[in-house]
C-alpha cells in the first residue's frame, strides 16, 4: 500500500511538471507572436533586450500559481537553472516509466497500471529539450532560451498535432482519475496531505488554459475542449475545487472564447468549444449554501460578460430555429420577404417607374423569394445533427443565465428578459429540486437541477396530462408516491406516442390542439340557450298538465332564428369535442384497460407457475422460475404497449367506455334541444364532469361508498318498520285531506318516507 501511495505521488508530480512545461511553452509562444505582430519589435530585439537583463512583466502562469516559483523564492539566482534541470530529469523519468524500467530507490516503475496509462497517453514519444541556461532572476525565460522551442517556433509557428495529442492524453488521464464524482481523489489532486510538498494540479490545469486560449486554432481546439472536460470533472461535487478553479480566474479565458470569431475553424467545433466553456462555468454553480460558493455566484455575475453570452445565445437560436421553432422560422421568413419586397419595390419605382414591368423586377422578386425560402426551409438530414448540437449548447447558455438570474442586477435581468432567444429557451427548460448529501458535512441539502424539456414532451403532452401526472397521485407514503408515478408512466408513454401520431396530420393536430376551445364554446352556448329558455319558454294560461306539447315560446321570430342558429353551433362544438375525445383520449382509455387485463393475466400465470414449481421442485427453483417469468412478462408487456389499436377495438371501446358514452349522450341531447329547448338544462351539469375541484369534493364524499350505502339501507329499514307500526296501530291519525294516505302498507311506507 505504501508503494502505491508513493507511485501515485510520483505520478501527480510528473503530471504537474508536464502541465507546467506545456503552459510555459504556450506562454512563450504567445509572447513571441505578440512581439512579431508589434511593428517596433522583432526576434533580434527580444534577444538584445534579454541579453541586457531587461525586466519582463510576469505572465499569467507565474502570477496565478505561487507553487511555480517556490523553488525560485528559496534560491532566486538559480531559479531557471533548477527549473530546466527539473525538466530534464522529468523527461528522463517519463522515458523510464514508458519503457517499464525501475531504478534503485525509485517508485516510478512500481505501479504497472500507471506505467501502462502513461504509455497509453503517448508520453514515450514526448520531445526532449535541452536545459535552459541560467538567466537573470527577474527576467522571464523567452522562447529563445530553449533551443528546441526556438527551432520549432521558427520553422512551425504552431505546435504540432502530436504534441497536442500528448497533452490531451494527459488531460484525459487526469479526468479519468476523478471521473464519477470521486471526492477523495478530487481532493487529493488539489492537495496531497501525505506528501512533503503538495502540488495543486487543479490550479495548474487552469494556468494551462490561460496559456493556450490566446493561440486557439483548428489544431488545438480539441485539447482546449479536453481541458474544459477535465475541469468539469474536477469541479463537480467538490466545493473546494470549484472555489479553487474560480479563484484561478477561469472567467477570463471563457470570456475570450465567447468573444472569439475563429473564422479559420469550422462552426461545429467552435460551437462545441463554447458549449464546453459554458458547461465548465455551470459546474462551478452547483451549490449556493456555503459562504464561499455564494461569493462565486456573486463574482461570476459581475465578471462574466453577459452581453457576449446573450449574443452567442441569439446566434445559436437563429441558427437552429428551423428545428427548435419551425412556426417562428416561417413567420420570420414571411416578415423578411415582405420587408425586402417593399424596400426593393420602393427603390425600383424611385429610380424607374417602368421597372415593375420589366424582367429585372421579376428576377429581383425571384431572388427575394429564394432568400426567404432559405430562411424557412426545414433542416435536412445532413445538418440536422449539427443543428441539434447547437440547440443543446443554447440550452447551456440559458441554464447559465437562469442559474445566475437571482444575483443579477435589474439592468442585466431586463436585458435577459428582452431577448427572444432567452425567453424561448427558458420556456423549454425544466426545473426540479433534489435532495443530496453534502460531500464534506454529510448534511442533506436541496439542489436545483435544470434540464432541457424533450421536444416530444413539450409538443406531445397536454397540459391536463402534465398536471394529472404531477399532482393527481397518492401521497400517503413515499412508496405509494413512487408506485403511482411508475404505474402512470406507461399511460404517459402511450399518450405521447398517440399524440405524435395525431400531430402528424394537420387537421387532426388542429382538432386536438384546440380541445379546450371546443368545450368552452359549447358550454358558453349552453348558458346562452338556457337564458333564452328563461325568457321565452312559457305555458298557456290554465294549463297544468305536463307534456312536451304543453309549452311554447313567446320570443319573436328573429330571436327564434338566432336560437336555432345557436343550437346548430352547439351541436357543432359538441361534435368537435366528441371527435377530439375519440381521437386523442379514447385510445388511452382502451389501452389502459387492455394493459390492466394483461397485468392480471400475467400475475395469474406467475402464481400458477410458482405453485407448480414450488410443489414439484423446491424453493430455490421457485425463485428462479419467478425471475424467468418476470423477464418474459416484461418483454410481452413492452410488445403489448407498442401495439396499435385497431378500428374494431376503438369501436368496442366507445360502446363500453363510460366517458365515451357520456360524450355521445351529450351530442344526442344537443340535437334534442333543437326540438325541446328545456333539454339544454342537462348540459349545465357538464361543469361537474370538467371541473377537478368538484370532482375532488364528490370523490371525498363518496370515498367510503360501502359505508354510505349501508347507512342509507339502514335508514330505509327503519322507515319501513315505522310504516308497519303506523299501519297497524295509527291509521286513524293520517289525514287524507292533507295528503297523508295510509289505506295500505305501501301507502303508509311512502307517506312516512316522504313526510317522516
Automatic annotation (TrEMBL):
Pfam families for this protein: RIH_assoc (PF08454)
InterPro entries, per database record: RIH_assoc-dom, Ryanodine_IP3_receptor
The UniProt record lists the keyword Phosphoprotein: no
Region (Disordered): 30-115, 349-383
Skewed-composition ranges (Basic and acidic residues): 30-40, 92-105
TM segment ranges: 517-535, 660-680, 712-730
Chain ranges of the RyR/IP3R Homology associated domain: 162-258
GO process terms (BP): calcium ion transport
Compositional bias per record (Polar residues), positions renumbered to this chain: 56-68
Alphabetically ordered keywords of this record: Membrane, Transmembrane, Transmembrane helix
Compositional bias per record (Basic residues), positions renumbered to this chain: 358-367
The protein, known as: RyR and IP3R homology associated-domain-containing protein
Amino acid at each position: 500500500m505504501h508503494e502505491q501511495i508513493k507511485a501515485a505521488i510520483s505520478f501527480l508530480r510528473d503530471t504537474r511538471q508536464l502541465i507546467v512545461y506545456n503552459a510555459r511553452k504556450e506562454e512563450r509562444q504567445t509572447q513571441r507572436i505578440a512581439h512579431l505582430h508589434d511593428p517596433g519589435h522583432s526576434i533580434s530585439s527580444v534577444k538584445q533586450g534579454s541579453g541586457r537583463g531587461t525586466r519582463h512583466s510576469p505572465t499569467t502562469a507565474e502570477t496565478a500559481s505561487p507553487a511555480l516559483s517556490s523553488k525560485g523564492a528559496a534560491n532566486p539566482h538559480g531559479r531557471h537553472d533548477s527549473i530546466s534541470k527539473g525538466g530534464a530529469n522529468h523527461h528522463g523519468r517519463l522515458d523510464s516509466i514508458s519503457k517499464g524500467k525501475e531504478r534503485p530507490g525509485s517508485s516510478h516503475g512500481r505501479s504497472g497500471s500507471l506505467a501502462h496509462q502513461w504509455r497509453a497517453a503517448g508520453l514515450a514519444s514526448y520531445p526532449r529539450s535541452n536545459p535552459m541556461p541560467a538567466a537573470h532572476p527577474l527576467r522571464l525565460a523567452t522562447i529563445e532560451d530553449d533551443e528546441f522551442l526556438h527551432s520549432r517556433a521558427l520553422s512551425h509557428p504552431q505546435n504540432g498535432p502530436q504534441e497536442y495529442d500528448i497533452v490531451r492524453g494527459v488531460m484525459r488521464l487526469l479526468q479519468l482519475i476523478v471521473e464519477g464524482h470521486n471526492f477523495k481523489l478530487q481532493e487529493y489532486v488539489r492537495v496531497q496531505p501525505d506528501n512533503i510538498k503538495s502540488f495543486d494540479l487543479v490550479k495548474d490545469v487552469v494556468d494551462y488554459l490561460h496559456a493556450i486560449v490566446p493561440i486557439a486554432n483548428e489544431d488545438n481546439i480539441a485539447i482546449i475542449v479536453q481541458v474544459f472536460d477535465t475541469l468539469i470533472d474536477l469541479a463537480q461535487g467538490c466545493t473546494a475545487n470549484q472555489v479553487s478553479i474560480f479563484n484561478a480566474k477561469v472567467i477570463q479565458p471563457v470570456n475570450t472564447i465567447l468573444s472569439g470569431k475563429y473564422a479559420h475553424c469550422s462552426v461545429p467545433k467552435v460551437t462545441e468549444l463554447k458549449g464546453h466553456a459554458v458547461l465548465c462555468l455551470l459546474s462551478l454553480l452547483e451549490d449556493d449554501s456555503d459562504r464561499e460558493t455564494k461569493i462565486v455566484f456573486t463574482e461570476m455575475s459581475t465578471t462574466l460578460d453577459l452581453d457576449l453570452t446573450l449574443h452567442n445565445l441569439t446566434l445559436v437560436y437563429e441558427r437552429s430555429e428551423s428545428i427548435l421553432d419551425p412556426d417562428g422560422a416561417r413567420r420570420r421568413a414571411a416578415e423578411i420577404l415582405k420587408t425586402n419586397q417593399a424596400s426593393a419595390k420602393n427603390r425600383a419605382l424611385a429610380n424607374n417607374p417602368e421597372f415593375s414591368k420589366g424582367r429585372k423586377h421579376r428576377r429581383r422578386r425571384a431572388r427575394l423569394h429564394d432568400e426567404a425560402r432559405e430562411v424557412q426551409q426545414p433542416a435536412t438530414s445532413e445538418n440536422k445533427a449539427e443543428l441539434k448540437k447547437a440547440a443543446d449548447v443554447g440550452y447551456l447558455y440559458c441554464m447559465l443565465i437562469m442559474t445566475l438570474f437571482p444575483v443579477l442586477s435589474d439592468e442585466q435581468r431586463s436585458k435577459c428578459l428582452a431577448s427572444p432567444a432567452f425567453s424561448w429557451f427558458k420556456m423549454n427548460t425544466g426545473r426540479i429540486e433534489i435532495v443530496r448529501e453534502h460531500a464534506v458535512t454529510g448534511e442533506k441539502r436541496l439542489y436545483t437541477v435544470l434540464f432541457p424539456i424533450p421536444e416530444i414532451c413539450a409538443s406531445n403532452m397536454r397540459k391536463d396530462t402534465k398536471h394529472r401526472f404531477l399532482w393527481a397521485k397518492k401521497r400517503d407514503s413515499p412508496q405509494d408516491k413512487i408506485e403511482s408515478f411508475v404505474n402512470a408512466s406507461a399511460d404517459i408513454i402511450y399518450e405521447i406516442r398517440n399524440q405524435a401520431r395525431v400531430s402528424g396530420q394537420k387537421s387532426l393536430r388542429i382538432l386536438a390542439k384546440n380541445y379546450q376551445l371546443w368545450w368552452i364554446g359549447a358550454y358558453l352556448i349552453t348558458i346562452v340557450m338556457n337564458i333564452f329558455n328563461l325568457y321565452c319558454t312559457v305555458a298557456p294560461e290554465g294549463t297544468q298538465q305536463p307534456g312536451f306539447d304543453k309549452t311554447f315560446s313567446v320570443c319573436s321570430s328573429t330571436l327564434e332564428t338566432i336560437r336555432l342558429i345557436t343550437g346548430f353551433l352547439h351541436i357543432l362544438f359538441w361534435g368537435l369535442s366528441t371527435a377530439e375525445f375519440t381521437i386523442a383520449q379514447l385510445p388511452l382509455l382502451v389501452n389502459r384497460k387492455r394493459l390492466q387485463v394483461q397485468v392480471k393475466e400475467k400475475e395469474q400465470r406467475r402464481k400458477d407457475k410458482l405453485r407448480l414449481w414450488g410443489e414439484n421442485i423446491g424453493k430455490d427453483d421457485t425463485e428462479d422460475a419467478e425471475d424467468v417469468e418476470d423477464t418474459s412478462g416484461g418483454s410481452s408487456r413492452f410488445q403489448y404497449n407498442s401495439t396499435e389499436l385497431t378500428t374494431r377495438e376503438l369501436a368496442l371501446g366507445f360502446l363500453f367506455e363510460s366517458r365515451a358514452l357520456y360524450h355521445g349522450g351529450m351530442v344526442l341531447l344537443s340535437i334534442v334541444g333543437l326540438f325541446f329547448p328545456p333539454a339544454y338544462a342537462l348540459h349545465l351539469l357538464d361543469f361537474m364532469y370538467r371541473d377537478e375541484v368538484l370532482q375532488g369534493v364528490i370523490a371525498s364524499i363518496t370515498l367510503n361508498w360501502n359505508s354510505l350505502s349501508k347507512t342509507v339501507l339502514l335508514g330505509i329499514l327503519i322507515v319501513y318498520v315505522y310504516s308497519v307500526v303506523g299501519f297497524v296501530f295509527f291509521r286513524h291519525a293520517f289525514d287524507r285531506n292533507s295528503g297523508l294516505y295510509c289505506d295500505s302498507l305501501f301507502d303508509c311506507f311512502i307517506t312516512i318516507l316522504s313526510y317522516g
